[in-house]
Write a structure and sequence with these properties.
single chain; 115 residues; mainly alpha; 4 helices; 53% helix; rod-shaped
Length: 115
């Protein structure tokens, strides 16, 4: 029960294709690293948008009663809300400055109303 055609030679091993060339943009699906932002740009960004509004309203509610003797009634509340909005948007430093200035303005308003 042997094979009448004789012994067979084994097939040659499969050839492997070379790996594809690397892309200059990196591997797909892997994000490229992002370098740090300049220090001045990230600090100044803390005082834009709602933080700037909160700070300006806070300065108005503090300086106007001290200089002219006029008291704002609703402005400290609006500035406080703008400061909270800035904190919620990630502008922590500007938001805290706005909240503190508006708290000082609210105290001056209360003193102006009762004094």
């Amino acid at each position: 029960m042997s094979d009448p055609s004789g012994p067979t030679t084994p097939a040659p091993p499969p050839t492997y294709a070379p790996p594809p060339p690397s892309s200059p943009y990196g591997q797909p699906g892997i994000p490229q690293p992002i370098g740090p932002a300049p220090v001045g740009a990230s600090i100044l960004r803390q005082f834009t948008g709602p933080a700037a509004v909160g700070i300006l309203l806070g300065l108005a509610t503090v300086l106007v009663p001290l200089v002219w003797g006029y008291v704002f009634y609703v402005l400290p509340i609006a500035g406080f809300l703008a400061g909270i909005a800035a904190i919620r948007r990630g502008q922590l430093i500007g938001g805290i400055v706005g909240v503190i200035l508006n708290a000082m303005g609210a105290i001056l308003t209360l003193i102006g109303l009762t004094g």
